[in-house]
Amino acid sequence: MSTGYVYHELYGWHDTGTHAGLLPADPRRGLQPFRHYENAEAKRRVHELVVATGLVDRLTRLAPRPATDDEILLVHTPGHLARLTEADATGGDAGDGGSPFGPGALGIARLAAGGVIRAVEAVVDGAVDNAYALVRPPGHHALADIGMGFCMLGNVAIAAQAARRSRGVERIAVVDIDVHHGNGTQAAFYDDPDVLTISLHQDRVFPPNSGFVTERGTGAGFGRALNLPLPPGTGNGGYLEAVRRVVLPALHRFRPDLVLVAAGFDANPVDPLARMMVTARGYREIARMLVGAAAELCGGRVVFAHEGGYDPVYVPFCAHAVIEVLAGVEEPFEDPFGVNFDNQGQQEAQPHQLAAIEAAEKLVADIG
Ligand SMILES: [Zn+2]
Questions:
Q1: Catalytic site residue 141?
Q2: What confidence tier does 191 reach under pLDDT thresholds 50, 70, 90?
Q3: How far apart, in whole angstroms, are the C-alpha atoms of residue 21 and residue 53?
Q4: What is the CATH number of domain 3-13+33-366?
């Protein structure tokens, strides 16, 4: 088993600036200057843990390259790219007022999208069996004409389109396990019958009023968007049930040639931006099921692309567990927080969570 691994130090140099978490620091509003929630640490510490435990020695390093204009324009409008280019010398915002970046960030965003492209190409070409792209900034909220939710470019959507164009991959499934709705990826393929987008997320966290179970695609793409908004408090039990009863059957009906996973780790119990309870153990099991499905359906061709996850202490253990699964590590590194988080009350699936899962489960039959 060989697993590709993308990381670049420049991912940590994307500067979201002085903030008070989500908001610009502003003493007039009582917002003392601090860091932005989306800062380098959670991702940088994933990489450092991967190096420190020796897991990196089991991986095949893949050097990212910048996504080209052509590749970016497979998903985004020329206007969006022009606005990012224009603001690149000074820094600015990717569009929604909540996606700040410093000077030179477009080059880093290109390297993030290009990192996912590189991982996908390596898997499709058979250079590696599967891959993990630890990229930053994240991408799954970015829309064609505007960045949002800390995202400048739609990394996964761009990589999917690039794989179709350069490698002739026909059917792609995107499974988004970030705690927020994968609205950008969904929008990029909303009328596309050959790309299935599935998003598991906490009900109505971000974007506002997005990711309802009723959002199902349009035209020829009807049925090829699947949303599973889960109640706050959903833990390992509910998530594993959701993957078993919705995601795996959907993948089996769709029969993809390639699976991409938008791997956000903000559904963990201590994330500042959501209220879920998935632990490293849960992420490990989710990854096992997705890797297993890819093995059954498409020769194991699966690429995980890093998205959100904002607790710098715990995210590394969640991502490390997923990368171990990809690499087929049989003796996993122990999550030192497992004793704190794995046995919290209501980790098992609750009735109201099962009701949400059942609502999405009913729609799987429409995926042809
Ligand atoms: Zn997120």
A1: yes
A2: very high
A3: 30
A4: 3.40.800.20
